[in-house]
Amino acid sequence: MDINNSVALVTGANRGLGRAFAQSLLERGARKVYATARRPETVDLPGVEVLALDITDPVSVRAAAEAAPDVSLLINNAGISTGTDLVTGSLDAVRHELETNMFGHLGMIREFAPSLARNGGGAIVNVLSAMSWFGGKGANAYHLTKAAAWAMTNGVRLELAEQGTLVTAVHLGLADTDMAAGWPVDKIAPSDLADAALDGVEADSAEVLADQWSRDVKSRLPLAPEEFNAAMDRALTALMTV
Fold first, then answer.
1. Of 47, 32, 69, 77, residue with least CA distance to 172
2. Which PANTHER family is this protein grouped with (predicted)?
3. How far, CA to CA in Å, does 151 sit from each of 105, 139, 147, 154, 155?
């Protein structure tokens, strides 16, 4: 897919990765960029078309699809992390993360898939995480939602192949955004993540491993669970002591 002259919609475009995606799309010659946010007044990027959107609200999602029927590239970026564990944490918080990080993305895909088909197939980018593949205390709800979103991405890729829609999963470790502000470790710049993801779209890639951390984690998946967990413990310890 050629980004130049495309019409893109980015969720969570008011800051962080979403803003970087919108900026990169403009720089690559996208004809129109819909920048969406729950609070549209917080979008401050010149050159975009701002839309109000709450991806957890089906009425809001449907309204966005009706307002943007010309979309050929959907960037599912919006997400949350509540720092919740699965056994002792708030079940409402777990459900809230699932509603945002998985069902929110799926709802967007379901609403926009017909428009993508009419507009030649286009592409969908789902921003996932290296935590699609591993958990950790204080982040297991996030791990659950990203693992579910990864499975969902793989499923919709198969279902949308017939209409010619590329579905690209983007995995990363940590990006230099507000969500990761409390982690004193190396992080990928939002602009670098957006560029890697859009390069992947232009190369028709089903998966983008945007940084070394995500590449390392995926390379460990063939290990037995106890070996995988031990390797991740060592990697996380090394990361925090750099």
1. 77
2. NADPH-DEPENDENT 1-ACYLDIHYDROXYACETONE PHOSPHATE REDUCTASE
3. 12, 19, 6, 5, 6
Q: Mind listing the pLDDT tens digit for each residue in 187-203?
A: 689 999 999 999 999 99
Reference 165, options 108, 100, 213, 215; nearest CA is 108
CB 168 within 8 A of CB 206: yes
d(CA 155, CA 63): 25
Each residue's pLDDT tens digit, 24-46: 999 999 999 999 999 999 999 99
Q: What is the pLDDT of residues 59-101, one digit of tens each?
A: 999 999 999 999 999 999 999 999 999 999 999 999 999 999 9
Label residue 220 left, alpha or beta by phi (over 0 means left) and psi (-120 to 50 means alpha): alpha
Given a contact cutoff of 8 angstroms between Cβ atoms, the answer to whether 200 and 170 are in contact is yes
Name the strand (E) or helix (H) holding 23.
Answer: helix 16-27
Pairing of β 32-37 and β 7-10: parallel
Furthest-apart CA atoms within the chain: distance in Å? 51
Residue 5, C-beta contacts closer than 8 angstroms, at least 6 positions apart: 29, 30, 31
